[in-house]
Amino acid sequence: MKNSLLIEKAYLSGAFISSKKTFEVINPSTLKPVGSLPDLTVKDCQKFIDTAHKSWEAWKSTPVGERSKMLRNLYNLINEHKQELAEIMTLESGKPLQESLTEVDYANSFIDWFAEEGKRAYGETIPSLAGNTRMQTIKQGVGVVAAITPWNFPLAMITRKVGPALAAGCTVVLKPASQTPFSAIALAKLADKAGIPKGVFNVITSKDSKGIGKELATNEKIRKISFTGSTSVGRTLMEQAASTIKRISLELGGNAPFIVFNNADIDKAVKGAVSGKFRNTGQTCVSINRFYVQEEVYKEFSTKLTEAVKAIAVGDGLKKGTQVGPLINSEGLKKVEEHVQDAIDKGAKVATGGKPIKGLFYEPTVLIDMPKDSVISTEETFGPICALFKFKTEDEAIKLANDTPFGLASYFFSENVNQCFRVSEQLEAGMVGVNTGLISNASAPFGGVKQSGLGREGSKYGLDEYIEVKYICFGGI
Fold first, then answer.
1. Does residue 46 form part of some domain?
2. 325: Cβ–Cβ under 8 A, 6 or more apart, which residues?
3. What pLDDT, on the 0 to 100 scale, is given for residue 163?
4. Interatomic CA distance for residues 341 and 326, integer angstroms
5. What is the CA radius of gyration of the chain?
6. Which of 120, 262, 340, 374 is the most buried (most CB within 10 A)?
7. What pTM was computed for the model?
8. Where is the Aldehyde dehydrogenase domain (predicted)?
9. Which CATH number does the domain housing residue 161 bear?
10. Which CA distances in Å does 31 have to 1, 60, 70, 186, 325?
11. Which residues of the chain are under the pLDDT cut of 50?
């Protein structure tokens, strides 16, 4: 399959570059190579940072209207190359092609949003109490931004960082995940065609995530770091970034609860459960990890969910009709197997699934009668497993849902409007889905509380993450 956007090079200052040392990217569906990319070093990373820093002087002075037009050009180009981008994403991540097409639209919604939102970085005037001064604020881009993105959303996790950064007048050094770097390089190609100047957007590819991450976190020329990934890595980057007092945004792990109350519309709850659990084979930070179902409706919900899960088609993402693809790698598969076995050993029953298929594929699974001391109750599985726990009262459900150091997303289904207000306000999460399993939207703030991270992406708040507020005082008026 020929794809003009599948480029086996990194991107620096408007040019695609090679290196003697390379690494392979493996298609998790076929376990065959997609291609190879430069395995760049920390020393190379310093060149990327220097380039972005040098380019920042001109970019920050570029009128916001021009920056907006360039982002609009990029938006149009992404739409034109939607199929190619989706095919690349499926090849490197394994997700079904239809999901990849949906992700391209989702990713592009951030370019669309911030192309406009960049025009609205309003300052303000402040009343002078003494009368002899004039006070005002303006908003300016923070500087050079380092963006580190994960493999599970190879395009969307980039655009929701790069979109606001470029709109705010920041330059960017992007380090995509080594499992899925081709989507980032494809975006760089389109950014170049959109007219974004040399050195403003740069993509470094490397297997040395630890070394590159440390350089990005500690280099004084980087003034902001935005990371999406595990809590453990986020904690390390936060410690490293403290050495230069950097601005930092972290979107980290989750352990999302999904509560089904006895007054819920069970059919809608099942539909919400499937959409919120099996997107990208359960490998999303907002994927449901713990299902809490009230005793009165437990049997009905578990029966209907099991029927729905049995009907899910598993296979290669490029094959028509595939709904669930493979796990990203052998470590991901091993974790799923260990979590399921732990639950079974402690008394859980398998309603459907429960076994690996072939290669990195695993059966969509429903586990019922889950014990409260199971590993799944405390750790994010990141796989196609529905683990169902029982609860008796609303207070118990809220307590169980909040009993985690994480707080990214929470979901619940209820037809009682008073309960909807009560529960949504008491759940300790940055985002709450009420009677829905899908919550992500470019115009809404995405982010968590507790150890799920700092800051927000998307919405008007997403632009603020890349902006400094400057106070200007005119005296002797």
1. yes
2. 28, 29, 90, 93, 94, 95, 96, 280, 281, 314, 315, 316, 317, 361
3. 98
4. 19
5. 23
6. 340
7. 0.96
8. 19-472
9. 3.40.605.10
10. 17, 44, 38, 22, 13
11. none
* Token pair belonging to 251: 């979107």
Kindly state whether residues 289 and 242 are assigned to the same domain: no
Pair 248, 264 in one domain: no
- The 10s digit of each residue's pLDDT in 405-424 is 999 999 999 999 999 999 99
N-terminal to C-terminal alpha carbon distance within the chain: 69
Torsion region of 211: left, alpha or beta (phi above 0 gives left; psi -120 to 50 gives alpha): alpha
Identify whether 3 is part of a domain.
no
Active site residues: 251
Q: Which residues form the domain of 108?
A: 10-252+452-474
What is residue 1's predicted lDDT score, i.e. its pLDDT? 56
Between CA 419 and CA 74 the distance in angstroms is: 44
Residue with tokens 């040098």: 54
Residues 241 and 276 in one domain: no
- Do residue 192 and residue 120 come from a single domain? yes
Q: Is there a single domain that holds both residue 464 and residue 346?
A: no
Instruction: Based on the fold, state whether residues 218 and 330 are members of the same structural domain.
Output: no
Q: Report the alpha-carbon distance of residue 184 to residue 312 in Å, rounded.
A: 30
Number of domains, the chain? 2
Assigned domain for 94 exists: yes
127 and 198 assigned to the same domain? yes
Which residue from 347, 406, 399, 340 is spatially nearest to 375, judged by alpha carbons? Answer: 340
